[in-house]
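mind reviewing both lines:
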Amino acid sequence: MPRPHPALQRSQKAPMTRARKRLLIVGAIVLIVVLGWILALVLQPAFQRTIVITTGADGGIYRGFADRYAPLLKHEGIKLDIRSSSGSIENYQRLTDPDSTYEVGFIQSGTTNPKDTDNLQTIAAVSYEPIWVFYRGDATIDLLSQLRGKRISLGVPGSGLLNVSQVLLGYSGITSQNSTLLQMDANAAYQGLQSGRIDAAFFIGRPDADMQRTLLTSNLKLMSFAQADALVQKFPSLSKIVLPRASASVADDLPRADVTLLAATALLVSKDTLHPALLYLLLDAARTVHGGEDYFTPIGTFPNLHTQEFPISDESIRYFKSGRPFLYRYLPFWLASLIERRLLILLPFMALLIGLIQALPRTLEARMKKRLEVWYREIKALEDEVWKNFAPTRAQIAQWRDEIESIDASASQIRIPYRYFQDVYALKQAIGIVRDRIAHAAERAQK
């Protein structure tokens, strides 16, 4: 260890000890690791760039929605991975599976029994899904109970239509015991009606869909729900809507009267783990696709949050109240997401770091005070012994003097920062006071 320069004996710092070197090395390693971690966070992708969505049958209404979402999301750098299904019920099953890759899907209102453990959230209600009942025969049917004893197509397994049609028929007392209930897809049901193999069939879809246009311009009859208000009261997930006269064809005046229909609501639903940034993009796409005027609603009716099937996402509530958040409104999407994600990660880290920095001086001060308190307690104990002994022997006085000098020597060797030197000198003043007490006790003993 190098010796101090003779001219700097009173001010030159002592050489660095091995313990201090090890401490500095460990601190440097920790700092490098932390900086590397922060750099890795900054360089990694800001967010996922693919959304897996479960829709419905190819050519169906849900697939049509997803196909219109895809180019809008692609413009923002997001790929929409569209996967077909048998319908609303299968979509629900896919989304409730925590291990599935499906993140978003369409679910028809009234087709499921949501549970708190589903971990799903509604992004928005996006469209009405009219329920059509077409039938054969000369008689006019406006009550479902009039279908008793007939052959009726309800939809296909896994579809929301099958569930809703069974519930509606059940309200009217129609069961498999008194009627023939069949599970058929739309094309098979239409062919069955035309050939006379079935008497009535439930369909679902928008009026401008190919199947609906075919049905509305055919020789089949469309049922108007005379009990629509009562059915909606019993089945709140449905809504009452009206198809205006001549909506299918003005030239042929089809239909020839306003038709009262029931409609489910198409819900855009996601797992509650979906990144908020992606949710805002989906809301923008939904507003573009569904915000226009259609047969049943004025412009701006959809998308909306008028549903209680699943919990509404916090981001959707914020979006419909004030639009996109500030960052997403004025910055490119990728940059806004990057900043938001980094802030969410770095702010807690910075708060912790600031707390540690603020706590470090107090911790150091407490450590210094504790080192001095040991000697203060030793001095106090010695002083108490001197005060209590009115007739000390020479041996006791000699012991006291040895102890106070030993304490003084130890206090002189305490290594603490300059800012705490005043505490060391306060300790030395206390040592001097006790030394004087011992001297007075020695004088009394000699008298």
In short: Residues 1-13 have pLDDT under 50 and may be disordered. The first strand starts at residue 50 and ends at 54. The chain is about 50% helix and 15% strand. Strands lie at 50-54, 79-83, 104-108, 120-135, 151-153, 180-182, 200-204, 221-222, 239-243, 259-271.
